[in-house]
Amino acid sequence: MFFKRKNLLVLILCMLTLIFTSCVKTAPVTPPAAEPTKGQPISKSDFLLGTIVEISIYDKQDEAIIDKALDRIREIENKMTINNAETSEIIALNEAAGTKEVKVSADTLDVLERGMYYSELSKGRFDITVGPIVKLWNIGTDLAAVPDPKVLEEKVKLIDYRKLHVDRNNLTAKLDDPDMQVDLGAIAKGYAADEVAEILKQNGVQHAIINLGGNVLTIGGNMQDSPWKIGIQDPFNPRGDFLGIASIKDKTVVTSGTYERYFEQDGKRYHHILDPRTGYPADNEVASVSIITDKSMDGDGNSTSVLLLGLEEGMKFIEGQKNIEAIFITYDKKVYITSGLQATFMVTNPDFTLMN
Ligand code: ADP
Ligand code: MG
Q1: Number of independent structural domains in the chain
Q2: I need a surface site. Which of 6, 148, 244, 298 has the fewest CB within 10 A?
């Protein structure tokens, strides 16, 4: 579901929207100053990993670097998608569940391991074996509907990351129960963003912005070497309105929000981040959370975990880790930030109150 390609029309519409405004929830708010001699950045976008991907390089005028990065994202998508059985190692893993281990690439193994790490850290609130209930809800597709509670209850029993095993020496992975399913929807984008950053840096890029939907990653600062200004999405006005600005250099901003993918039934809203304890969407005071850290995959693991943990537990979860900062936005329009963000983040929309 997560990687499902939208039809061509949606893609074209999104591309057009992207050109005129911005189709993503987190984005640079002011065009960073251009390099004095060379003018505008070079920039390319594509629809990959179920989202609009945009790479902008401000120093090197070499499109081949962006092409190389986009190819790398395609390679990651092919291995981890749940929509293409010919290429996907995750589909192979899910199909062999309960029977045997399957060969996986180092890429897939890395993401599985990191996913297992966050599953453990969040005590199973984040769980990469959430696949059976993701499939059942179909959120993000035309088939989305509230499932039969009895069926949901049965599927919930299948979720258990401790029954996923990886073997780094032999590059294999295995699921214990035949009906289990891995879903990397919460973290594959982060992995891809980090890989793109590596490729750009290896090719000498020192000033760039990588945007994969809710994952923004900056390389260096802007051309004046000042921090990039990244807009934090207003979760109640999700298409292009910001509630605040984070000033960052060489960091990633990763947002998970309940507004991102949802459907409504009988006047109630159901979003795409599901609680493995109940099978239903996370239901607490947090409307969205943005994580600021070095690696986008860590941003991913933390943003989804914290959205499930809620404000109080989520705050402790973040403060208990080094070098991870967070911005929590609650349904009553209050903004809570971790201690390390005092000088980095400011609220710009007066409808929101920054709490101390
Ligand atoms: P987005 O896709 O908007 O960036 P997230 O990064 O928070 O949002 O990922 C949400 C996706 O993660 C869902 O679409 C689903 O594929 C998967 N998912 C849903 N619930 C969980 C969970 N409890 N643990 C791990 N992954 C989840
Ligand atoms: Mg994510």
Answers
A1: 1
A2: 148
Instruction: Give the distance (Å) from ligand 1 centre to CA of residue 186.
Output: 4
Q: Is the pTM of this model over 0.85?
A: yes
For 248-295, the pLDDT digits (tens) are 999 999 999 998 888 999 999 999 999 999 999 999 999 999 999 999
Distance 304 CA to ligand 1 centre (A): 6
Return the best residue to mutate from 26, 81, 152, 183 for the ligand 1 pocket (most ligand atoms within 8 A of CB): 183
Strand ranges in the chain using DSSP code E only, listed in sequence order: 27-28, 42-48, 51-57, 102-103, 164-167, 172-175, 208-212, 215-219, 228-233, 242-248, 252-257, 262-265, 268-271, 286-293, 325-330, 334-337, 345-347, 353-355
Ligand 1 centroid, distance to 288 Cα (angstroms):
13
Residue 238's pLDDT band, with cuts at 50, 70 and 90, is: confident
